[in-house]
Amino acid sequence: MGAREIGTRATSEVPAIRVEGVSKSFRLYHDVNYTLKERIINWRKRGYDLFWALKGIDLTVYKGETLGIIGPNGSGKSTLLRMMTRIMKPNEGRIYTNGTIAALLELGAGFHPDLTGRENIYLNASILGFKRRDLEGLIDGIIEFSELGPFIDNQVKNYSSGMYVRLGFSIAINLNPDILLIDEVLAVGDESFQTKCLNRIARMQQEGKTIVLVTHEANIAAAICDRVLWLDKGVERMLGDPREVTERYHEAMRMRPEGSEFGTRDIVIDKVEVMNRHGKEAVEFETGEPMTLRIHYHAARPVEDPVFGFGFYDQMGFMVYGTNTRLRGMNIPKVQGRGMMEFSIASLYMLDGRYYVSVAAHTRDGLVNYHWLDKLFYFDVRSPGMEEGYLAMECDIDLKEE
Prior knowledge:
Blueprint (H helix, E strand, L loop, with lengths): L2 E4 L2 E4 L2 E15 L6 H6 L6 E15 L3 E5 L6 H8 L7 E6 L3 E4 L12 H11 L11 H8 L14 H14 L4 E5 L7 H16 L3 E5 L3 H7 L2 E6 L2 E6 L1 H12 L6 E3 L5 E8 L8 E3 L4 E14 L2 E7 L5 E6 L9 E12 L7 E10 L6 E14 L20
Parallel strand pairs: 5-9, 5-10, 7-8, 8-9, 14-20
Antiparallel strand pairs: 1-2, 3-4, 3-6, 10-11, 12-20, 13-15, 15-18, 16-17, 16-19, 19-20
Helix pairs in contact: 4-5, 7-8
């Protein structure tokens, strides 16, 4: 079996999902008849327009690949996912799948509200072709991962949205499908459970599972997917490298990734320079290259004992590295007027990715922010391709006889 490179991982050349010329339309009726009398009187008069949710989509998702699907509301993302599960049929074209499928769609999909969580586990599993005896070794793991504890024997109509997500995701991943389809639901769970889900998705990626993730969080798609498909008004706008697609998407949506600024402005940061080894401002660096970060500031009145610092963040908003003058043991008795703080980084150890920069001036105890510029700057890192993950490390490999 051959392999192909997608992103930084090798995937199979065997298609897991093949979408060929798929289009899907819905009827938008002009008038709504609420009563039986209205329906009888107007049954021949009622008109409608055709709305094409998807038009002419061609796509191949390979075994072992993680594909992200992004786009604004109404772009056809969820419709495409439902057709992959065969909940809907296309008006035109065909969809072929190769392997068992588990899907986590909108909240409550596949659940019977009057059944308990435990009973819904068996119901969902039976829909996927599992017999009751097949679940005996899985049921405890599903319940444990869901963290529902004593609530597992309550009717799911009494569950919160977060509890729905916990149960649905736990069922989907523990049934060990070949293909996992996820539609937006990760945005509902709390932060700790989201992290837990992302860790399990990473494990499934290592196991060679095929994953299709529909999300409004383009930065999550960029961080965990091998390719990203951008849909807009039912047609493919772009398909390819996650970082390139999401950056183009952000530009089209006129979005900044969480950029903001705040503070008392007793110290004002006027300018931030991200400079390369040649002393030139830059947004592209190579792994191992030095960087100089300059923070220009001014203080209209004397400010005693300030702290200056910075942080680098990945596209999911997690801090990759950060430090400040207090952590480095540098005491600044007082600042007044104009000045500059210079942070010299001997070597960038990050691998490929886009990283956002925050800079700040605050009190020593961190309780008062004079000026905080949060993720308003960025730079890209390119690596030679000898490692995977987030950080570069020195590694010598030698084959020895015992």
